[in-house]
Structure formats: C-alpha cells, structure tokens
Amino acid sequence: xxxxxxxxxxxxxxxxxxxxxxxxxxxxxxxxxxxxxxxxxxxxxxxxxxxxxxxxxxxxxxxxxxxxxxxxxxxxxxxxxxxxxxxxxxxxxxxxxxxxxxxxxxxxxxxxxxxxxxxxxxxxxxxxxxxxxxxxxxxxxxxxxxxxxxxxxxxxxxxxxxxxxxxxx
Length: 169
Prior knowledge:
Layout: H1 2-11, H2 17-38, H3 44-48, H4 60-80, H5 88-111, H6 115-139, H7 141-168
Helix pairs in contact: 2-4, 2-5, 4-7, 5-6, 6-7
Protein name: Tryptophan-rich sensory protein
Subcellular location: Membrane
InterPro entries: TspO/MBR-related_sf (IPR038330), TspO_MBR (IPR004307)
C-alpha cells in the first residue's frame, strides 16, 4: 500500500512552470513595493530638495521598478528551479540579502530624510547586486543576464542619490 502511494505521488504533475514564474514575479514585485506602501516618497522635505539636471520625471520610477522587479522575479525563478546546481543556495541567499537592502533604501532615504544614509545603503546594494549576478551566473547564465538592467538602474540611482546628497548637504 505505501509503495503504491509513493508511485502515485511521483506521477502527480507539479505546478505549471509558467504559473511558478508568475508567482515569483508577483512575489518580487510585492516585496519590492512594500517600502512605498509603508513610507511616502511624496514629502514636503523631498520636494524642497534641489534636484540634479538629470533627475527623471516621477513616472519613470514606478515604470522602471515594475519592469526591473519583473526581471528579478524571472531570474529568481530560473535559479530556484535549478535544484541540482551547485552554488544555488548561495545565489538564493545573496538575492534575499540584496532585496533586503533594496527595501531598506526607501525608509533610509525618505522616512529618515537622510540622503547620506540612503547613499550608504544603495552603495552596499550595488555591491550585493554585483555579487548576486556573479552567483546567478554560476547557476543559470540567463538569470544573471536578467539582472544586468537592475545593476544599471542601481548604478544610475546611486549617482542620483549622491547628487541629491551633494546638492543639499
């Protein structure tokens, strides 16, 4: 009897890979949006800051982050499903840590009204994104490639954060 139950469970299909990927995309987008839910970026303090000439229009941020979090979700799913790959655990761990720093940036910068602290957080995030790309590369090259636009945006955001600090120090 026990062996027939085991055989049945082995034959049961798992969740559709597309549904899994969508789940990862939704999860990363939800986690990434948490700081915006709990802290407002539209504050009198921020509006009063001098902005650099290259500061993008406000609509650019939600569009860019939604796209980037979608790419991150797909990349995370690609790594997660490679259960046989060496280095997978490190890659997943680095992803979680870099997401924690990503989430920490908004309250550091906006809630605490501290561009210098935000700069420290985003520079640590940049290093963690580079490490995550390298760890993902060892598991799935496609997943690593999906993180490159994120690195480019975090680089731009780091420069922007630095300029906001410098102009308003």
